[in-house]
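Z., the sequence and structure:
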Amino acid sequence: MEASGILEIPSMRDKVGEAEWQTREDLAALYRAAAHMGYQDVTLNHFTARLPDAPDHFLIKPEQMMFEEVTASSLLCFTLDDKPVYDQSLSKSPASFNIHGAILKARPDINCVMHLHSDAGAALSTLECGLMFISQYAMRFWGKVAYHTYEGLVHGGENNECDQLTGDLGDKTVLIMRNHGTLVVGRSIGEAFLFNHYLERSCAIQMQALTSGRAIVEPDDEVCAEIARGWIENRPNPGIAGNRDWAAVRRQMDRLDPSYRT
């Protein structure tokens, strides 16, 4: 139902456990943060989060919603075999499951997937050279970037792009989807947010540098590898990145519009 330009969503607060509710709040905040940062593409694109207490279940936004509308209760819950967990009135995009469900199923080590069509990311996806490690932001992803050749819209289960996507991603953190956009995975919602933030900065810096028409300085491979090893997720005993930054983003979303928590 819709009233005054707002979709009326029944609360899920008393229908789910505490771990799921906290994940719902975090994922809703992620959608709101992406909208605030200018990544909203009408109702397209999705972020997903695996439930910590039910690893074969994941949350995703309804296909009818824009990022700025998403709330904790509006998020849909599905199994990794594409079965709805609750009886909810809104629906998911077929493409969303074909991308996100397949990756979460293939990568039990990751808990959040972000797929975007941002201007910088989509523009970079068209370049034959791919991501260049010309900024400190980009160097964080040294050895962590994979590429997927464009195969058209991912709408039906009849194509095998899901298998190709997961095969191309492998154990990497970033997937550049040629002529399409970007995809980032993280072990937490905060980590995925931070990786996406650095990837977006990397893409924007590269595209701006290329428009200058001047020669670009490309650091040696050894320099890039050394910079990458300095980040927490790339150390010998890797930790999960993004906790500090994600806490700050959550505070920002609370200041801007805490309705995402409902």
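The chain is about 35% helix and 15% strand. The beta strands are 2-3, 6-7, 46-51, 54-60, 76-79, 112-116, 145-148, 174-177, 181-186.

Let me know what you think.
H.
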